[in-house]
Specification:
Elements lengths: L4 H7 L15 E2 L4 E4 L6 E4 L7 E2 L14 E6 L6 E6 L5 E3 L12 E2 L5 E6 L2 E6 L5 E6 L5 E8 L5 E8 L2 E8 L5 E7 L3 E6 L5 E6 L2 E6 L6 E2 L6 E7 L6 E6 L8 E6 L4 E7 L3 E6 L5 E6 L6 E6 L4 E7 L11 E2 L5 E6 L6 E6 L12
Antiparallel strand pairs: 1-7, 2-3, 3-30, 4-5, 5-6, 6-7, 8-9, 9-10, 10-11, 12-13, 13-14, 14-15, 16-17, 17-18, 18-19, 20-21, 21-22, 22-23, 24-25, 25-26, 26-27, 28-29, 29-30
Length: about 375
């Protein structure tokens, strides 16, 4: 499935935040290290120091403002996980939080880019990145603990998260204006990665081995009809009409593939086979995907053009856990970010892809 750079280029479709107050901000010097990838010789930038553990938020979270001026991430530079913003111009980072038990995957910017939303110490918090004010929106009830996943609706009015109590899970919808909570679904199996549907009042979430969809009022909670096999990472298309997801066929000899499900019509369709992706994400207009291969023989980060189902290898990730590579695009689709522990502890990397992917409108 791999082709030359020239061939790949021919297939690509044409297609506000201030720093914290000085008494709260902690600046970290740039740790950017640039090198040529061993397999492709493409330039790769390691953005964080592998002497510390640093993580990107969940692949469906919002990690950069529309103008791409900084990158949001979590690191244990201080000895515990805190949120940081890395300036795109110079690589200097600034600490944004001072919280116990911060969930590094929960970080996401609010739609107006004035605040950071996260889960820390059993609380859903908003951190104003202009004046450092921390506001508790919601506290997980006694007896429960936070489950995997947090996301904000596109309008910022609601947050969706999971909670667990022993082997029981529940999906909660939190109104951001007053912290009131509604239970949308409960089950005696894992619930994870809730993602509000763009332009609709419903939430997509992982449950057991499948994907489920439930309305904001808790009605019509149902499992989506997907291809046979296991379901990997998923996300909504930009218009919210379809779900893009990874499928792991039951037959181990078949390739992992990207598929698209349309909840309103119960349709499911194949998009492309992959080089055994275990993590992937779309760009802003869903014309190109970036994936992380789980193959031990080919531990690569790859681009895949949707219209022609062809791949281009960007670089090696060599991560001990390929699922945590979790590559994502910048808002304008001109950079790819991913995680890897290939040089020590988990670090964050970036690759410029403007030669291969058309720029997308990041202002919407």
């Amino acid at each position: 499935m791999r082709h030359s750079r020239r061939w790949f280029l021919s297939t690509v479709p044409v297609g506000c935040v201030a720093a914290l107050a000085s008494d709260r901000s902690k600046q970290v010097p740039s740790a950017i290290f640039q090198y040529s990838d061993y397999s492709t010789e493409f330039p790769v930038s390691r953005l964080t120091d592998p002497a510390y553990s640093s993580f990107l938020p969940a692949h469906y979270g919002r990690v950069m403002p529309r103008k791409g001026t900084f990158l949001l991430y979590a690191s244990d530079l201080t000895g515990r996980m805190e949120a940081y913003r890395m300036e795109a111009k110079n690589g200097i980072s600034r600490q944004l939080t001072e919280q116990e038990a911060l969930d590094p995957l929960s970080l996401t910017l609010t739609p107006d880019e004035h605040e950071l939303c996260c889960v820390a110490g059993g609380r859903l918090l908003l951190v104003h990145v202009g004046n450092g004010r921390v506001r508790e929106i919601y506290r997980i009830p006694e007896g429960y603990e936070s489950g995997p996943g947090l996301s904000l609706a596109a309008d910022g009015l609601y947050a969706a998260l999971t909670e667990k109590k022993g082997s029981n899970y529940r999906l909660r919808l939190i109104r951001m204006s007053d912290g009131s909570a509604t239970t949308l679904a409960e089950a005696a199996e894992e619930m994870r990665n809730p993602i509000p549907r763009p332009k609709r009042a419903s939430v997509l979430y992982g449950r057991g081995n499948g994907l489920w969809l439930v309305n904001y009022d808790g009605q019509q909670n149902h499992r989506l009809r997907l291809a046979e096999g296991e379901t990997g990472p998923a996300n909504w298309s930009p218009d919210g009409r379809t779900v893009l997801y990874l499928n792991y066929p039951s037959d181990a000899h078949k390739l992992h593939n990207i598929r698209v499900a349309t909840p309103d019509t119960n349709e499911d369709a194949w998009i492309s086979d992959t080089t055994q992706y275990v993590a992937f994400e779309r760009n802003a207009n869903a014309s190109v995907f970036v994936g992380a291969s789980g193959s031990k023989a080919s531990p690569h980060v790859l681009l895949l053009v949707r219209s022609v189902q062809r791949e281009l290898t960007l670089c090696e990730h060599r991560s001990s856990d390929p699922r945590r590579v979790a590559p994502i695009f910048s808002p304008d689709s001109q950079q790819v970010f991913f995680g890897s522990d290939q040089h020590g502890k988990p670090a964050i990397y970036s690759v410029a892809v403007e030669k291969f992917v058309a720029q997308t409108d990041s202002t919407q």
